[in-house]
């Protein structure tokens, strides 16, 4: 399959450019009988939507999604679900300047080398605008996982530049524009972002995603391990440069006696594995963490070249997020949900009639 | 496709258990006309082979690979290449004890929950023994990439537990059993491993992999980005818990002006992106780093449960690597080479006739 | 991948029901730089469009296609091409009667057994209305194949019920509503259809498709042979019950000396193979022939059961084609073009640098 | 995926040339817990095996298959099953003559044009020898389908050149070397084959395959319809030039009232559809029929060219089947079983929890 499809039984295929007529995707493989309406998708889309606070791009997009097929009398039919979002607030003139220049740390240069042509308006296909469809598709997976299996997939911002969270409360995550679970850090983040915006610079961030209620057994070793597919899905999100499962890079300096999650009849005593053993879910929470690079669209001048290879100085005007990480939480949740959904269907297909006498101990 | 295949045009499908009759794989999609013999594969296999130093498992496997098809008169024919390695040094009795117990941090518990049955001998399919075929398949990709495109894929150990490298010299990497590029750290690593082995514990490690000479343009956004497929491939290696591309998690606290790799007619001025922009190779070196967890097979007792859910104390005898990271370098190289090979063929298929006027500036 | 995608490098994924809001598809993998506009697709869509003569359904659909992405400044960019056709002439009331009944020879019964729910309006996803998107996607493939490689893909009706063509002239095919190449049979077909329509019954047909200018070498043995993928593609068209390549079923009673296509420096002396040898194109014309069953929507009463299993008598009112074969020619052309396009890209990906000294002799 | 894999959840990937060291395949996705041993595969392999009567090639191959992985203590584990058959009776000298010539109606010419190089020994990868692995893999599918679901997949020869069967008795099929169900035609076939062999010519054949006990609901519209995947699978068998489902090409001249299979509470009243409606199984027997071309390896001289394009006269010595159709029955059964197995797992994956109130009426 070409590169714009993800998933084997629950397959998401998307299209659309930042400044094209519309964004769309096809969700193929959703089981029939799931109650579904636009409202189920709009909630997640609104959480990702630009222009909701002064800390994100001021581009205003309603991001209203239409379900064009696959749902009949309020329920999925098992046939492909076509989704569409019309673009409404393109301002292509903003981008005319850079039509012949390559913005540093953007995909301009690589798209030109790959395709020999590029839609330079707002980054075209390489724009994070594409992630709206991931969130819409992910919302379908999240609803199925929650309604049928009691699985919840939730994320939060754990670090914004130098500001790390210290306290944790799920209830706080949606009380601030950062998806920050530590109420005491919100003000610090706001001040940091205000200063950053003034300076014209941008900053990176860390997002954590957690799936709870995942049954043991999901994942297809040796190549389609659950953690490998999660890494694929999360690293495919714009600006992501690193992925960790469980203890992640802390493993390097861990002893085996320290890292191993011991088992008792009452449950696992720790979760350094992040809920995945041998590429298969263990019944513990699935823990993933990602690093997002700072936005590359800056009004501070940077050295670059033009399409002919001549040196130029690039200044990116237009509307941008000074920290793409701020809006990335719903996207990371969506991708984890899509992976879990796909693996649930694959597992069911190959092992639906497996009976296991060993109890599912879960987390202690 | 089921979970034991990797790659879309250069497809590797493998089989085999730690203590089964043999390991094998099929490499489908290798272009015709490549000179190939067992000797081309054996070199990399020997670098991964167990029992070559006191710091790895003492299991002795010749790991002699046979090419069963796809090569005629010394050259690939474009038909699938069948590879086979017979297992010769199984000692299944070592494992009889744990046939009814789940070793902490092993796949025993999850395999049982997924399949309802498991080959407990040495971990069966979940054993790192499976990676021998990855190295064999990767050797084919590496030879093609090097001979046809001048691409080199090389890795090294950058951290062993608390011991971090400080100096770097490719020439040193193959002068010690750790693939360590810093000659001054080798003795420290040896002492550390000797003490560790005495203690009966294990430790994690970090491996870096670098591909040089990669042309710009490889990668298939938005889901099959080059970095996303690399993350998939590297995270699918046993014991890997984290993957970074370029600056990785250091991005979190980087400013945009600091992270962005500026372009000049003489080349990119830095490589925080790790050679991938927008999911497509930039012509700079591809930089990946992975974290490996400490081995879970320990003779130090750990709490667990048996197949009926009763509490047990587990001690893992048998022969094991106290640090799986030590032998992981050739495996990581192999997986990166397979990804690059697959993406080279995919890119060629879709864009073979693209002409680009912009010069390939590469690294300054 | 789920079942609504076709092709590996040139991938078509579609959605849409007969009476839903819209039909759409995503064409992923089209090479960049191809001049493309809606006009390039509309021509083929109009050839398939209903309501153009009294011999087809009187449902009136403009079938106006919109290109939503993947084209910039008149050229493809290499990113996915989103296509959309809004439904405009649904008359769902026509179908309310059969919401609880299964029409004989329709997919009503099987969709219910597969999904437990069905969109009964006009057959929902199982309606031939879905083929509009195949034609739109196929038009992109046909343009690329013709413009870049000089390949033409053309089809015609070779038999309508008992009426077989005897003469052949490509110029005639578009001079009549049947795609009939034999001018002397057109009147006979019209009279036959008029009588059939009066009787309320329907009839089958045979369509032949020919691709000329196909280079030798396309096809991926052993499972993705060119003829195997053609069989897959053509049999996936609604109402198709048989597929032949070259001599097809006539092979059964052919001697080897009679069937084998001898080679001379001036070309092959015959084409019983239909342009495919060992699953790979030979450079001769690709010849395929398909059988289409008679329409199942009849106003003549038929025995069936309702959703509860009770016996019922079904009469299908509404607007239908008395011979689906009449409009199938552009659909068959589209599917053959999609297969050739996909195999051209796959072949190029794996064998772009192959040099062959043996001349391409083609057809004598 | 490259071209040597078939199936999405039950995936068969094969390798091997006619005169290479060995043939092999990997069956990935077989559910765990199925009792399996070499004996289960050998039966079908022996039915396909050459040299069992004077009517087939005299090449003697034991075709002894080894199971190298995926089975533990007599049961499948859910991990990939590696299968291997060593070649034992190659006589490459037989083929040295034609190393520089292209045999008419063989894949010699097309392989050379695709790959630029070919293993000319016995046709290399294009030899029907490859089908041994299809039969081995198919035997696993057939056992699962029969043991778990009560599905039987059986085939027979319905026509050998001009000799058509008139009577039908499953019990006769294995009482003669032709898989002929009509005892009264066996003698006629033997005489025909003896005369044919003397003449040095070859002949085509027709094989029918029937699957009984298939539940309704298998098939993934719109592209992966059950009949479309069957057409793909059957057309991928060497020498097959045509595929029919149910009434097949007889549909062309059928009226809708005649073709439609009416439903009653007691079952369908006919099966012109061949057990597939809208691409989904109906619960009736699945009926497929294939046409096989006459063998192309003839000792009667034929015109051709050599690798440089010069005219030559080709005579094929060596050992060949004068009618490849004779041994094709087990191969066709295997491919149908693989398709049904794959679709059963896919259907279960996406629709495992669907409940259907409508009774499964089956065939009357």
From TrEMBL, chains A, B, C, D:
<dbReference type="GO" id="GO:0009423">
    <property type="term" value="P:chorismate biosynthetic process"/>
</dbReference>
<feature type="binding site">
    <location>
        <position position="319"/>
    </location>
    <ligand>
        <name>FMN</name>
    </ligand>
</feature>
<keyword id="KW-0288">FMN</keyword>
<dbReference type="InterPro" id="IPR035904">
    <property type="entry name" value="Chorismate_synth_AroC_sf"/>
</dbReference>
<dbReference type="Pfam" id="PF01264">
    <property type="entry name" value="Chorismate_synt"/>
</dbReference>
<feature type="binding site">
    <location>
        <begin position="238"/>
        <end position="239"/>
    </location>
    <ligand>
        <name>FMN</name>
    </ligand>
</feature>
<keyword id="KW-0028">Amino-acid biosynthesis</keyword>
<keyword id="KW-0274">FAD</keyword>
<dbReference type="InterPro" id="IPR000453">
    <property type="entry name" value="Chorismate_synth"/>
</dbReference>
<keyword id="KW-0057">Aromatic amino acid biosynthesis</keyword>
<feature type="region of interest" description="Disordered">
    <location>
        <begin position="41"/>
        <end position="61"/>
    </location>
</feature>
<dbReference type="GO" id="GO:0008652">
    <property type="term" value="P:amino acid biosynthetic process"/>
</dbReference>
<keyword id="KW-0285">Flavoprotein</keyword>
<comment type="subunit">
    <text>Homotetramer.</text>
</comment>
<dbReference type="GO" id="GO:0010181">
    <property type="term" value="F:FMN binding"/>
</dbReference>
<keyword id="KW-0521">NADP</keyword>
<dbReference type="GO" id="GO:0005829">
    <property type="term" value="C:cytosol"/>
</dbReference>
<feature type="binding site">
    <location>
        <position position="278"/>
    </location>
    <ligand>
        <name>FMN</name>
    </ligand>
</feature>
<keyword id="KW-0456">Lyase</keyword>
<protein>
    <recommendedName>
        <fullName>Chorismate synthase</fullName>
        <ecNumber>4.2.3.5</ecNumber>
    </recommendedName>
</protein>
<feature type="binding site">
    <location>
        <position position="48"/>
    </location>
    <ligand>
        <name>NADP(+)</name>
    </ligand>
</feature>
<feature type="binding site">
    <location>
        <position position="54"/>
    </location>
    <ligand>
        <name>NADP(+)</name>
    </ligand>
</feature>
<comment type="pathway">
    <text>Metabolic intermediate biosynthesis; chorismate biosynthesis; chorismate from D-erythrose 4-phosphate and phosphoenolpyruvate: step 7/7.</text>
</comment>
<comment type="function">
    <text>This reaction introduces a second double bond into the aromatic ring system.</text>
</comment>
<comment type="similarity">
    <text>Belongs to the chorismate synthase family.</text>
</comment>
<feature type="binding site">
    <location>
        <begin position="293"/>
        <end position="297"/>
    </location>
    <ligand>
        <name>FMN</name>
    </ligand>
</feature>
<dbReference type="GO" id="GO:0004107">
    <property type="term" value="F:chorismate synthase activity"/>
</dbReference>
<feature type="binding site">
    <location>
        <begin position="125"/>
        <end position="127"/>
    </location>
    <ligand>
        <name>FMN</name>
    </ligand>
</feature>
<dbReference type="GO" id="GO:0009073">
    <property type="term" value="P:aromatic amino acid family biosynthetic process"/>
</dbReference>
<dbReference type="InterPro" id="IPR020541">
    <property type="entry name" value="Chorismate_synthase_CS"/>
</dbReference>
């Amino acid at each position: 399959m070409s590169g714009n499809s993800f998933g084997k039984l629950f397959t998401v295929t998307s299209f659309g450019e930042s400044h094209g007529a519309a964004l769309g995707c096809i969700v193929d493989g959703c089981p029939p009988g799931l109650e579904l309406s636009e409202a189920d998708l709009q909630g997640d889309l609104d959480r990702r939507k630009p222009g909701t606070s002064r800390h994100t791009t001021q581009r205003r997009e309603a991001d209203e999604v239409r379900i064009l097929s696959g749902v009949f009398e309020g329920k999925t039919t098992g046939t492909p679900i076509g989704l569409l979002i019309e673009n409404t607030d393109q301002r292509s003139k903003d981008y005319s300047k850079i039509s012949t220049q390559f913005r540093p740390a953007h995909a301009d240069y690589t798209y030109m080398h790959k395709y020999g042509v590029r839609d330079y308006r707002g980054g075209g296909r390489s724009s994070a605008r594409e992630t709206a469809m991931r969130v819409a598709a992910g919302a379908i997976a999240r609803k199925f996982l929650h309604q049928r299996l009691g699985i919840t997939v939730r994320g939060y911002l754990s670090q914004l530049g130098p500001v790390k969270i210290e306290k944790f409360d799920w209830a706080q995550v949606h009380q601030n524009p950062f998806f920050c679970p530590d109420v005491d850090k919100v003000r610090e983040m706001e001040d940091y972002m205000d200063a950053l915006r003034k300076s014209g610079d941008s900053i990176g961030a860390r997002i954590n995603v957690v799936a709870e209620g995942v049954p043991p057994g999901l994942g297809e070793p040796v190549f389609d391990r659950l953690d490998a597919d999660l890494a694929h899905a999360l690293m495919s999100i714009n600006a992501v440069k690193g992925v960790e499962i469980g203890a992640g890079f802390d493993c390097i300096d861990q002893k085996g006696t320290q890292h191993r999650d011991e088992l008792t009849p009452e449950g696992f005593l720790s979760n350094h594995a992040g809920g995945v053993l041998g590429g298969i879910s263990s019944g513990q929470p699935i823990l993933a963490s990602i690093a997002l690079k700072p936005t590359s669209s800056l009004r501070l001048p940077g050295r670059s070249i033009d399409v002919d290879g001549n040196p130029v100085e690039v200044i990116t005007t237009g509307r941008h997020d000074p920290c793409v990480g701020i809006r990335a939480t719903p996207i990371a949740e969506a991708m984890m949900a899509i992976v879990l959904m796909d693996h649930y269907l694959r597992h069911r297909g190959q092992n639906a009639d497996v009976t296991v006498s060993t109890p599912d101990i879960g987390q202690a």
